[in-house]
Amino acid sequence: MARGTSAARNLVEMFEATAARLPDRAATRQKREGRWVDTTWSDLGRRVRDIADGLAALGVKKGDRVSVIGETTTEWLAADLAVMSAGATRRTRLHSGVRGGFRSPRAHPHATATASIS
Predict the structure, then answer these.
(1) Per-residue pLDDT tens for 23-60?
(2) Parallel, antiparallel, or unpaired: how do β-strands 113-116 and 101-103 relate?
(3) Are 90 and 80 in contact (CB under 8 A)?
(4) What is the DSSP string of the chain?
(5) Between β-strands 101-103 and 26-32, what pairing exists: parallel, antiparallel or unpaired?
(6) By the 8 A CB rule, do 116 and 92 touch?
(7) Model confidence pLDDT, tens digit, residues 83-97
(8) Burial of 6 (0-12, 13-18, 19+ CB in 10 A)
(9) Which of 63, 62, 80 is nearest to 71 (CA)?
């Protein structure tokens, strides 16, 4: 394991430790409107916490399944980490042109909620 992550018991703890250790470093780099844009570890950590709070407000709890629909982007990564942070499981990953946000009723028959990423 990388230095500073040996105490992490799972991917969420490893993510949180890295975000705390490298808050101003780039966590992701994504092309937007023709130019590369960095997202820092602290910003990604804030996004994950905000989404996890939204999932909890929808009633998502440990053991639930959440569908994440969208392209593989920084937003998708934040949603995926938020699902794990809530103790839930990501049920699906589909590419679609849907608008962003969380909604219920669910798009997958066994999911508690669905996140659409755009």
Answers:
(1) 999 999 999 999 999 999 999 999 999 999 999 999 99
(2) antiparallel
(3) yes
(4) --TT-TT--SHHHHHHHHHHHSTTSEEEEEEETTEEEEEEHHHHHHHHHHHHHHHHHTT--TT-EEEEES-SSHHHHHHHHHHHHTT-EEEEEE---PPSEEESS-SSTT-SEEEE--
(5) unpaired
(6) no
(7) 999 999 887 655 545
(8) exposed
(9) 80
pLDDT interval class at 1 (50, 70, 90):
very low
Axis-axis angle for helices 11-21, 74-85 (nearest 10): 120
Distance CA 98, CA 65 (A): 20
Question: What single letter denotes the amino acid at residue 77?
Answer: L
